Structures are given as structure tokens and as C-alpha cells.
Amino acid sequence: MKSTQGKVKISKFLSLVLRHQPEVIGLCLDKNGWAAISELIGKAHIAGFNLTLTLIQQIVATSDKQRFNVSQDGNCIRANQGHSIPVEPGLLEAQPPDILYHGTARRNLNSIRREGIKRGKRNHVHLSLDVETALKVGVRHGHPVVLKVQAGIMFTDGIHFFRSENGVWLTEYVAPEYLMVQV
After folding, report:
1. Do residues 113 and 171 both lie within one domain?
2. How many CB atoms lie under 10 A from the CB of residue 138?
3. 118, 175 contact by CB (below 8 A)
4. d(CA 79, CA 153)
5. Do 105 and 53 fall within a single domain?
6. How far apart (Å, rounded) are the C-alpha atoms in residues 133 and 112?
7. Does residue 63 sit in the same domain as residue 13?
8. Domain of 69: which CATH number?
9. Which of 79, 113, 138 is the last residue of a domain?
10. pTM of this prediction exceeds 0.85
11. SS in 3 state form for the chain?
């Protein structure tokens, strides 16, 4: 059993190669973002990460953020969302709840009030079901602030929403008129 620090390091490595830069280890993702676990283990080993199937399964099962998903046959793995590379994770459009939340750093607030929430380098803006989760996201970026997103009104106005397998709500952009400062 790896230490918590070791699992965090492996989880960050998996995020890097499954969400952003598979090329750093020469990993091939299919158009839906899936990678063969056997290939991932082999290429990770060459890059200095001692991955095993058991360790990957532990990280997937115990991650509080549930960033990764193993295929039903157990042969492939992918990130649920958060990609900055072009993939089609097969997300189905869904009607969001009336209110969702977005956590960010306070230093971003003036820009967001003017320009809205942009997806940046990622394929989607990430939204949370609750303030607590959004606050955890905001803390990672600095002094946190949580924005209340009027998702129900956005959906009625024709904005598309998707829900990833781990419950994160996704959309391409949130205009300033749909936002209110929560915390």
C-alpha cells in the first residue's frame, strides 16, 4: 500500500497524462480519452512511475474527487473531465439544477464580473452542486470566493450542460449576468 503522499503524486501524474499531456510518456488516448491500462503501466514505468493495476484501482476507488474511470472490462482508464486536449468523453446533455456553484480565487473576481467564467485551456467550465465543493476548488487557486451560477435560467436560455460521471457539471461558458457572489 502506497503512502497518501505517494498516491497523491500518482493521481497528479494520472491527471497529467490522461487530461493534459499524454505525449510526455508517449501514451495514446482514443477519441473518447481512454487509454489501455497495460500501455499506461508500461509507459509510466519507463518514465519512473511504478504503477500497478492494483494501485490504479485503489486510486480510482478511493479518490474523493473521482477524477478517473476504469472501463467495465477493466482494460482501460480515462479522466472523467478536465481535459485540455481534444477528446469526446461521450457526455450526454442534461438539465442542471437551478443553482450550481463555481470556486475560484478572489483575484479573478473582477475579471469574471466583466467577462464571465471562461473555460480557459480546458474543454469546459466546471461547476459544483454545493458551496463546500466549490470552496475546496477555490482554495486551490488562492483566497477563495464562490460564485452562484443560475444554471436553470441558463438552460432555459438554451445553454448546454453536461454532467460527468463523477457529478461535476460542465458547460462551455458562464456569462456575467448568470452570476452572483456567494462567499
Report:
1. yes
2. 24
3. no
4. 29
5. no
6. 19
7. yes
8. 1.10.10.970
9. 79
10. no
11. CCCHHHHHHHHHHHHHHHHHCHHHCCCCCCCCCCEEHHHHHHHHHHCCCCCCHHHHHHHHHHCCCCCEEECCCCCEEEECCCCCCCCCCCCCECCCCCCEEEEEEHHHHHHHHHHCEECCCCCCEEEECCHHHHHHHHHCCCCEEEEEECHHHHHHCCCCCEECCCCCEEECEECHHHEEECC
The CATH number linked to 116 is 3.20.170.30
Rg (C-alpha) for the chain, rounded Å, is: 17
Encoded amino acid at 135, one letter? L
112 lies in which domain range? 100-181
**C-alpha separations of 137 from 131, 133, 134, 142 in Å:** 10, 6, 5, 9
pLDDT digits 0-9 by tens, 48-97: 888 899 999 888 887 767 788 888 899 999 987 777 788 777 777 899 99
